[in-house]
Every structure is written in C-alpha cells, then in structure tokens.
Amino acid sequence: LDPTVIDPDTHKTDFVGTYNKTLAICHALKEREDAGEPIAAVVLDGIDILLKDCEMVMRYQDLKIDETKRLSQMWDWQNRNTKFYAVVYMAKRMKCRRFFTTHYKDKKQLVGTELITTEKIPIWQDQFPGKMAQRIFLERKDLKDSVVFEAKIGKAKGALYLEGQKYVVAEVKSTTKEAHWYGLHDFYREVER
C-alpha cells in the first residue's frame, strides 16, 4: 500500500497526510493481526523517506516553520523521532516478519585533495543503533548470462554464525527473461529455530 498523499492544489507531497496514512495502515495491519488474521510480512519500504516525512510533519504541523529554516532548539528533533518511532515500533511489535528497506548514502573521506567514496551505508544507520535484530544488504550483480540479487547478512542477532553469509534471493536469465525467486527461506529457518 502506498501511503503517499498528494495535495490536489499544489501537486506536491502532503507530508502530514502521508504520515497519517502511514500510521493508519500500520494500525490497521496490527489490529488485523491481533484479531487472528494471518499476515505473512510487513515491509516499510524507504524507512529513510519515512524519517524525512516525519521531519516535514514536525516542521509544518508541530513547529509551524518552513522546511528550509534552521531549528533553534535541538530538542525539537524529538518531535520527529517520536513520530518516526511510533510507526517503526508498531511494525516491530507485530508477530509476522518485518522488513525495513532503505537507500544508501556514500560515506566519503578526503584522500589528499580528492574526496572519495569509501563505502555505501544505509541512510538511517546512525538513527538506529542496535534497534534491528538483522541487517541484510541486497546487491544486484550483472553476470554474463543473468542478473542475480544477492543478500549478505550484516547482522544476525541470536545467530551470529550467519553474519557474512550470502544468499541468492532472485535471479533473472538475460536471454529468456525467466525469473526465479528463492527468497531468504534458508536464512529464516536458521534464525527462527
């Protein structure tokens, strides 16, 4: 379900409406699960965008300031964090599998006079120290006869021996465009023992 709400007058994202819809979807899924309806998984796709949406709600609704204005009080950021964690923790409390996806940002370092990218890290990583039980990095690999999507386990709380393991999640044959989905069944069998 896409929670994005577009303002009909400005044709721009309505951040308050988007956040409220995101929260409502999470509430509805949690209620359905609590009522006994089986839910296979919940995916919060773009958790870094959710964090930015929460910042915009804080600015427009809570502080009534423009998006470009510098915040004068550091504790104002708590408004953003409270909104963000309300959604994240609601999803984390569900019994089904939960996936939180994010984009990457370049971590840079000055080498001589040149700024180089040293690695790619999840955008929200600094905001979430120790709050996730697993961290899985998905990478697309273009091979000679196929495209492979490979998951590397970066963190597996409770199953540390899995850290560093790689799993082929999906593969698409270049010539036939035939797709094969493998998923992370082997990983979850180990983690959920």
Can you offer a commentary on this structure?
The structure is a single chain. This protein has helices at 15-34, 47-63, 77-92, 185-191; strands at residues 41-45, 97-101, 104-111, 114-122, 134-142, 146-156, 166-173, 179-181. Helix 1 crosses helix 2 (47-63), helix 1 (15-34) packs parallel to helix 3 (77-92) and helix 2 (47-63) crosses helix 3 (77-92). The strands form 3 sheets. Strands 5-6-7-8 form a 4-stranded antiparallel beta sheet. The chain has 193 residues and is of the alpha+beta class. The chain is 31% helix and 30% strand. The mean pLDDT is 89. Strand 5 and strand 6 form a beta hairpin. The chain is built from 4 helices and 8 strands, in the order αβααβββββββα.
Structural key phrases:
single chain; alpha+beta; 4-stranded antiparallel β-sheet; globular
Distance between the termini: 31 Å
- Radius of gyration from CA coordinates: 20 Å
Mean of pLDDT:
89
- Neighbour order of strands in the largest sheet: 5-6-7-8
Low-confidence stretches: none
Helix content: 25-40%
Sketch the major β-sheet: 4 strands, antiparallel
From the spread of the alpha carbons, the general shape counts as globular
Multimeric state: single chain
Structural class per helix/strand content?
A: alpha+beta
* Count of helical regions: 4
Number of strands: 8
